[in-house]
Amino acid sequence: MTADGKYDVIVAGAGLAGCLAATTAAKAGANVLLLDRNPESEVGKKTVWGWTCGDAVAKSHLDFVNRKTGITFSRPELDNPVTGVLAISPDMQTKFMFDGEGFILDRPEFEAKLLRAALSAGAHYESSFEVEAPVLEDSRVVGGVEGKDRNGQKREYRAKVVVDALGGISTVLRRKLPENPLRGEADRYRRH
Ligand SMILES: Cc1cc2nc3c(=O)[nH]c(=O)nc-3n(C[C@H](O)[C@H](O)[C@H](O)COP(=O)(O)OP(=O)(O)OC[C@H]3O[C@@H](n4cnc5c(N)ncnc54)[C@H](O)[C@@H]3O)c2cc1C
Q1: Residue 39 CB less than 6 A away from ligand 1
Q2: In contact, 96 and 2? CB cutoff 8 Å
């Protein structure tokens, strides 16, 4: 935390995107707080549907992460090497082959590794924290998030930058942004 009680960056959500954002920002020298509702033992779990994911990843994507962050991957997080992935429609009538080297992940191990990378880069981490809203003053976003900690206590954290990595475009932070012309533009863009 900086002298004025703020972090440089708050990353909301410690999934794949959040852990990598926290690692990258911390490696660049930022004071980072990473928040997630999951307990540390289940970091990366998609809480609504459990561990839902196909867990297939292209080697080129892991190489990209390695180039950008220095994180190296091996067993146990890389469970099985594959030479392609066959995507099949729900009615089994349409099949699409993605050729190329890749892996089936052990997802809990993979996410735990990404969290360890964020922590060793120097990010602070609070698990079991439910993010509820951006911090607003007079309908203006002033930089920060509010939510409930593991004891159900209301907490507010401030930062110069908030990264919404809660998963997707309809996160609680996104939904609670005040109406403004820029948000309207973004919504119009998404509809086309
Ligand atoms: C059925 C399915 C199959 C898939 N298969 C594949 C595949 O084979 N290969 C592939 O590469 N991708 C696959 N994906 C996509 C992949 O899972 C996502 O792209 C990836 O997980 C997105 O990462 P993320 O960090 O953005 O979000 P998430 O992984 O969803 O992380 C969001 C984090 O935010 C936390 N969070 C959410 N709301 C709050 C809150 N209010 N307060 C605190 N914390 C909160 C959650 O606990 C979670 O840890 C699949 C997805 C689905 C649904």
Answers
A1: no
A2: no
Cα–Cα distance measured from residue 33 to residue 11, given in angstroms and rounded to the nearest whole number = 6
- How many domains does the structure of the chain reveal? 1
Measured torsion, CA atoms of residues 109, 63, 121, 41, in degrees rounded to the nearest 10: -10
User: Is the beta carbon of 166 within 6 A of some atom in ligand 1?
Assistant: yes
Residues making up the chain, counted from first to last: 192
The residue nearest atom 6 of ligand 1, judged by CA position, is 54
Task: With respect to residue 52, please indicate whether it lies within any of the assigned structural domains.
Answer: yes
Q: CATH number of the domain that 146 lies in?
A: 3.50.50.60
Could you read off the pLDDT of 144-179 as tens digits, one per residue?
Answer: 999 999 999 999 999 999 999 998 878 999 999 887
* 20 belongs to a structural domain: yes
Q: Which domain holds residue 11?
A: 6-191
- In this prediction the pTM is 0.91
* 1 is a domain residue: no
Q: 163: closest CA among 10, 57, 40, 8?
A: 10
Residues 6+ apart with CB under 8 A from 48: none
Asked whether 149 lines ligand 1 (CB < 6 A), one says no
